[in-house]
Structures are given as structure tokens and as C-alpha cells.
Design goal:
5 helices; 245 residues; globular; alpha/beta; Rossmann fold; nine-stranded mixed β-sheet; 23% helix
């Protein structure tokens, strides 16, 4: 069975309340629970799942956040992230047997195979910038393709202060597009390959796919972020059409 056939088999098996949108020949997104869709055929999985940090509108429950005084994260009260109130189990992702990059993996490392190398996002330039922000200096991802190499990606991302995408706040735990594109290189995803993000959020992984010539299949359970992802991805696809005209 081809990747295309597998993709549509999984969509046809989705619950009746799932919403499927084919935004282009290369980009498909689903509003639903990824657990109802998996397994899905793909070339790689690149994702940032909820991992039990109990995010609420003002930050993380039980841990004060300096951004709370500004009226929420990025000046907004986002509400809770669905699925973030319990520990994350990566078993379904591992069972796919595909190259996998999963962020926040230090919080569920005991449920992952031992990794000789990790991906590190240094978002504070070695911790010397952005004093007064309570977030972590870096974030960690488990990658099945690292071999014996730990790789570091440096991109300043400190609350409102960023090296890129300034003012573009679509999700409280949003990642930079450049970071997700880098993840695809580390996971050795071929050009034209199909990338699955079962916890799509606001669609950042999909934008990285469009910009790097890869196909994308995203799943998001929260209608707010699904709508945001559709808008972002549609806008990104239109940008590409401008250059083709």
C-alpha cells in the first residue's frame, strides 16, 4: 500500500466528528484525536506533544510565571492545553518505526529508548540574554537519528523578544519554523517526504515542510489551534503560489 493510500485509509477510518481538510496536494490536516488515527504511514514524525506540565492560562500550574503579570502568555489567556494534564506516553509514536523527533522528551525520557545524542535548542544564547524571563535556557528533543552526536540549534526566543517571527503568537508553546525545519534535516527527511505531526498545534511543522519541499500530514485535537494552523498553512501556500505566477 502506497503512502498516499495509507494516508487516505487513515482519514477514512477517522471518527465521524473528525474534520479533514486537504489544503493542497501536499498538505492535509485533521481536527481530531491522533490516537484514533494512528498508525499512519509517513517518512518521519516531527512533533512537540503535550507532556504533562499542566499548562494553564497563566503559565504552569504550581510554578509561578513571570509572564503572568503581563496578562497571560504573550499577553493572552490561552486556557489549558488539551492532554497536558497527564504524563505523555510516546509508545504510539515509537510503534510507527519511523525517524522521530519529539520535543520535551526529557520529561518522559524513561519511556523512550536510550539516546546517545539529543537535539538541543539554545533559545537564550547560552543563557546570557533575556534576563528576567523565567523560561528555560534551552529545550531538548529526542531524535532517533542522532547517532552518537548531540546537536545544538541556536535561535533567540525569549517571550516577546525573538530573532524571528516577532509578534506572531499563535500558541503558548509555539516553536520557530526554522527550528522544525532543522529537525527535519537532523532526522534525514528526504525532499518530498511525508512528515507527520500528530500534535500539530498551530501548524509550525507544516510551514517548515512547505518551505523545505516536503509533504505534511497534521493532526490537532483543539479546534482553536486547528483553525489557526489552517489559516497559517493556507497563507503559506498562497505565498508559494505568488512566486509561481
Amino acid at each position: 500500500m502506497t503512502t498516499f493510500e495509507n494516508e487516505h485509509r487513515a482519514v477514512s477510518a477517522a471518527p465521524v466528528d473528525a474534520i479533514v481538510r486537504h489544503l493542497s496536494a501536499e498538505v492535509t490536516v485533521v481536527l481530531g484525536d491522533c490516537r484514533d488515527l494512528l498508525p499512519l504511514e509517513c517518512d518521519a514524525v516531527i512533533t512537540d506533544p503535550p507532556y504533562g506540565m499542566k499548562w494553564n492560562a497563566k503559565g504552569r500550574i504550581g510554578r509561578p510565571s513571570s509572564v503572568a503579570t503581563a496578562g497571560g502568555v504573550y499577553g493572552r489567556d490561552w486556557g489549558g492545553i488539551l492532554g497536558d494534564d497527564k504524563p505523555f506516553d510516546p509508545a504510539l509514536l515509537l510503534a510507527l518505526g519511523k525517524p522521530l523527533v519529539t520535543w520535551g522528551a526529557n520529561h518522559y525520557a524513561s519511556r523512550l529508548p536510550d539516546a546517545p545524542g539529543w537535539l538541543i535548542w539554545d533559545k537564550k544564547r547560552g543563557g546570557t540574554a533575556g534576563k528576567g524571563f523565567s523560561g528555560s535556557d534551552c529545550e531538548l528533543a529526542w531524535c532517533s537519528e542522532t547517532g552518537d552526536c548531540t546537536a545544538i540549534f541556536c535561535l533567540y526566543w525569549d517571550g516577546f523578544r525573538r530573532d524571528c517571527e516577532v509578534g506572531q503568537h499563535f500558541h503558548p508553546t509555539q516553536k520557530p519554523v526554522a527550528l522544525m525545519a532543522w529537525c527535519m534535516e537532523r532526522a534525514k527527511v528526504p525532499e518530498g517526504g511525508l512528515v507527520l505531526d500528530p500534535y500539530m498545534g498551530s501548524g509550525t511543522t507544516g510551514i517548515a515542510c512547505i518551505r523545505t519541499g516536503r509533504r505534511f500530514f497534521g493532526v490537532e485535537i483543539d479546534p482553536r489551534y486547528f483553525d489557526a494552523a489552517c489559516e497559517r498553512l493556507t497563507r503559506e501556500l498562497a505565498q508559494g503560489d505568488l512566486f509561481l505566477g
